[in-house]
Amino acid sequence: MLVKICGITTPEIAEAAVHAGADFLGFVFAKSKREISTEQARKIIAPLPEHVKSVGVFVNKDTKEIEHIVQETGIDFVQLHGEETAEAVKNFSVPVIKSLPGTTDGLHIAAQYDAASYLLMDSPPLPHAHGGNGIAFNWSILKGNHFTDRLMLAGGLTAENVAEAIREAGPIGVDVSSGVETDGEKDPDKIKAFIHAAKQQ
């Protein structure tokens, strides 16, 4: 089971996630309390071991601007959380993770994004947030979908419910941010517990 810890903002938390067994670390380049600068991200990404992949998270940002950040930071994947078209996904120099709402409509739309390396089914967006809102959805609607080999799951996951979510949805990976935080800050113990619970499946 692949595990992505998203919203990394410090070298210390990145190191804790790596030691706990994370496969992906997410860096948010969008308006968020977890937003990070290009320079900060570059410093955290540079010493990462090769097997841990860095992911830049973007919301409706211009392709050229994203590509500039890719080159400046060395991120391995681009994660798109906005209204990017299936055609736009083909225009990047690194693999793409496309986030879609965990709804029946989201499942239908997913079929269009054949160029995405992973499809991240997340909580349906709130008026002020494109995913990343820490709310779970009905995981069972994802069961038996035709893109299981590239399905990642996000939205309200914690160490306590991730095993159930994996059984219900059958993803190849899971993505967490607020579910491994205490008082709005990443918690190394929660990161460790989450990764352990996910990789037991």
Quick description:
The chain is an alpha/beta fold. Helix content is 28%, strand content 20%. The strands form two sheets. An eight-stranded parallel barrel has the order 1-2-3-4-5-6-7-8, surrounded by five helices. A two-stranded antiparallel sheet has the order 9-10.
**Uncertain stretches:** 126-131
In CATH's first tier, which class applies?
Alpha Beta
CATH superfamily: Aldolase class I
Form type? globular
Lateral arrangement of strands in the main beta sheet: 1-2-3-4-5-6-7-8
Task: Please outline the major beta sheet.
Answer: 8 strands, parallel, barrel
Mean pLDDT value: 91
**Structure annotation, total helices:** 6
Strand content: 15-25%
SS class = alpha/beta
Distance between the termini: 7 Å
Question: Keywords for this structure?
Answer:
globular; alpha/beta; 8-stranded parallel barrel; 201 residues; TIM Barrel
Describe this structure in words.
By secondary structure, this protein is an alpha/beta fold. It has one domain: TIM Barrel (Alpha-Beta Barrel). Helix content is 28%, strand content 20%. It contains 6 helices and 10 strands. The strands form 2 sheets. Strands 1-2-3-4-5-6-7-8 form an 8-stranded parallel beta barrel, surrounded by 5 helices. The protein has a two-stranded antiparallel ribbon with strand order 9-10. β3 (53-58), α3 (63-73) and β4 form a beta-alpha-beta unit. α1 (11-20) runs parallel beside α6 (188-199). The model is unreliable at 126-131 (pLDDT under 50).
Q: What's the helix and strand layout?
A:
Layout: E1 2-5, H1 11-20, E2 24-28, H2 38-45, E3 53-58, H3 63-73, E4 77-80, E5 96-101, H4 104-110, E6 118-122, E7 151-153, H5 162-169, E8 173-176, E9 181-182, E10 185-186, H6 188-199
